[in-house]
Amino acid sequence: MKRLQIIDSTTITLFSNLLLKGVGRHPKTEKKKGGLRVHTVIHANEGVPSDIKFTSVATNDTFILRPSALNRGDIMAMDRAYIDYEKFEQLTQRGVIYVSRMKKSLKFSIQEDVMWQNADGLMEVRVQHVTFTKDKKDGGTITHRARIITYADVKKRRLIRLLTNDMDSDPDEIIAIYRQRWEI
After folding, report:
1. pLDDT under 70: residue ranges of the chain
2. What's the domain count of the chain?
């Protein structure tokens, strides 16, 4: 966990949409959401921020995910707002491990699918080796291989799907890394 870095952002809502460009619309009021977004990186073993950036809420979260600033063996834990296939592939090529929550809308092809059940026949963990393919604006294609680890969160009574490029670690280790993300 000494190499684990946790990334997250939070929005500080401002009173006027005139101050900063807003993003999205509230489903009931149709008003734009104006404010600042605070992007934070924390080294898990230190518990204090190592990098803080302020942006407009309209700025995509993935800008803070800079593969070139990371080294082989570093581990990144983040939420699903940071999913970017191109950056994930760059992280993989640099030997950086990432663990993120999975978006429901992601399209992928399954290469391998294994599920472990408990004595009652209920799913404990499911591991899928998958390939993501995305067309780039310049005409090229990004292909990224990853692993989806699905587990049952008994306290919240729901399934949690994690996305990682760590193809070897035990699923329990990946789950523990993601749970560390809540330290932020």
Report:
1. 1, 15-34, 183-184
2. 1
